[in-house]
Amino acid sequence: MVFENLDEMRKGVERAVSIGGEKVEIKDNNLLKNEIIDKLIFTAIFGESIELKAKARYLIKLIAKSLGIKLASIHQLYSAIGRNELGGFTVPAMNLRGLSYDSARAFLRAAKILDCGAFIFEIAKSEMEYTSQKPNEYVASMLSAAIKEDFKGFLFIQGDHFQAKAKNYFSNKEKEINSLKELIKESVLAGFYNIDIDSSTLVQLEKPTVREQQKENSFVCAELTNFVREIEPEGVTVSVGGEIGEVGGHNSTVEEFEAFMEEYIPLLKGGEIIKKISVQTGTSHGGVVLPDGTIAKVKLDFSVLENISKVAREKYKMGGTVQHGASTLPDEMFHKFKEHGAVEVHLATGFQNLIFDHPLLPYDLKTKVYDFLKSNFSNEMKEGETEEQFYYKVRKKGWGDPLKKDWWNLDSDVKEAIFKDLEDKFAFLIEQLGVNGTTEVVNKIVTANEINPSYENELLSLKSGVKLEVETNPRAD
Fold it and tell me: What span, in angstroms and rounded, lies between the C-alpha atoms of 312 and 130?
């Protein structure tokens, strides 16, 4: 499925498209969709050399640009919600950990059928490492999916949980902040125009007042917001989000939110404030796993979303609250997010579960993944934990190298069955969250620059990608 060398790639691509400098003309769209784009994205990820990978990623962006696909910030949409000019829906933000190209294709098929324009593809800082997907690669997968599925319009790609590690921060603040700035810069350069800053790990509940508790959180969020505003491309206002409550901790309050904002806003050097705030409502990332491997029922406090969203919109003109850790909730809960003012909901583990537990997933592959997990992460098995709990907890780490190619090389018939079921799941969520029929409003409100492909940038990202330090229990849904 890969091009063996640059000359073979050039000849193959020229069968479908004509390229003259930065100008691209599609000669055979069927050939492009049915053969060439698959080989390009496989080469972009599994090519034999960094030059081959970089060229494939560059060509993917060049082709996407010619087709009118744009990488966009959702800032304008959330600003309009903050001004009460529209609403009544919750934007799904989907962490595509493994088989991200096929997963994005499944979502885009559902989006086209249901006329959904308000959605986000995202990947967390921790996920980039254990799924072996850095920003430029992730963008290439999303753009390739759009090309493959004839999706025209905006792709909102987000860096999720760009998280400060408390231990590192309190021992060397400058070093920890600079490491996050490096990641943000790499991500924005790749086309991530939506960045979720997670410095809620720095909240100090032992402090006597709520403002003191949120002080370090606000400081880092402001510092990184200022940095984003310094590096964002001309004509783009990157959407920035903050977080006040650690998912899995105590439920967030309006008092905490206002304390955070009172500390945060005076530290800004100008430019737009955050347009959304992540809160804790009673969920946990990935769900709580029972000894038999099933997920415990969750009591979610929707009033947290509603009350904080109300203040966020009325007082700060923000889009509202963000719900994390939601994909394993019961189906009957999803319509409530739009009814209680959540502007965005993050979804990940439910999609992973659908793939891992699909009846057509080959037994040999699942066994190979589980053997790898047992050999490499058995130190993460807690006393009293069953094997079912252990594998459920760590199997997200089975997506990346050295198993990544095994996943991507799944039999086409197996993939078709799995991703048809995933498409159906996406369609259900689109309707429950109320983002069906949102293409027109997105096209009316959102503006975006054309993609600006750069072979040098792709090559540089492969040579010097940011090394991420991952938490033992990293946060992502």
Answer: 34
What's the CA gap between 86 and 77, in Å, rounded?
A: 9
Do 176 and 37 belong together in one domain? no
Amino acid at 429: L
Residue with tokens 């049915």: 34
What percent of the chain has pLDDT above 90?
Answer: 88
Is 1 in contact with 39 (CB distance < 8 Å)? Answer: yes
Mean pLDDT of the chain: 93
Bridge-partner residues for 240, per DSSP?
A: 195
Q: What pLDDT, on a 0 to 100 scale, did the predictor assign at position 472?
A: 44
Region for residue 330 given its phi and psi (left: phi exceeds 0; alpha: psi -120 to 50; beta: otherwise) = beta
Query: 362-410 pLDDT, tens per residue?
Result: 999 999 999 999 999 999 999 999 999 999 999 999 999 999 999 999 9
Supply the range of the domain harboring residue 244: 70-356+404-464
CA neighbours within 13 Å on the CB side: how many for 454? 13
CA distance 349 to 200: 21
In a domain, 420, yes or no: yes
Q: What is the pLDDT of residues 75-98, one digit of tens each?
A: 999 999 999 999 999 999 999 999
- Determine the average pLDDT of the residues in 246-269: 89
Is 469 within 8 Å of 168 (Cβ atoms)? yes
- Which residues are registered as beta bridge partners of 155? 71
Asked whether residue 374 is assigned to any structural domain, the reply reads: no
- Does 475 reside within a domain? no
Span 187-210, pLDDT tens digits: 999 999 999 999 999 999 999 999
The answer to whether residue 293 is domain-embedded is: yes
Per DSSP, what are the bridge partners of residue 242?
A: 277
Tell me the one-letter amino acid at 85. Answer: E
27 and 176 share one domain: no
- The 8-class DSSP code of residue 450 comes to P
Q: Report the predicted TM-score, pTM, of the whole model to 2 decimal places.
A: 0.94
Burial of 88 (0-12, 13-18, 19+ CB in 10 A): exposed
Provide the pairing of β-strand 23-26 with 154-163. Answer: unpaired
Beta strand residue intervals within 7-49, DSSP E: 17-20, 23-26
